[in-house]
Amino acid sequence: PHSSANVETRGESVFASRNAIDGVYANLSHGAWPYQSWGINQNPEAEFTVDFGTPCQVSRVGITLRADFPHDNYWVKATLVFSDGSEHVVDLVKTPQPQFFDVDVVTSSIKLKDMITSDEPSPFPALTQLEAWGTELRG
What confidence score (pLDDT) does residue 66 get? Predict the structure, then answer.
């Protein structure tokens, strides 16, 4: 898979989109390895996409938020958009643990968008990992 985003914090590698698909779940700090994440540079229009390069039957999506509280904020809601155009709105909670959502879709990509930040005072929500559980479809 490959990742892309419409924004990354200050162009720094520790906040690049690719960090959210690297399999590193360390999320209790930020700014240096192993605490890399996708940082949105305080942009409320931020969007993150993972492209699988092939159609996949996806049954579950996991989201691990960066949890360097109180420095970090977190999203309470976000929308998953699949390559077939379908959308799945997810409710998120303040936790360092992965949060899982059941879906049933054939897709070659997942976009995370319309993230709504909590009322907490920090302006720094971030994504540590986005994972997709499923099967590659072979023709």
Answer: 98
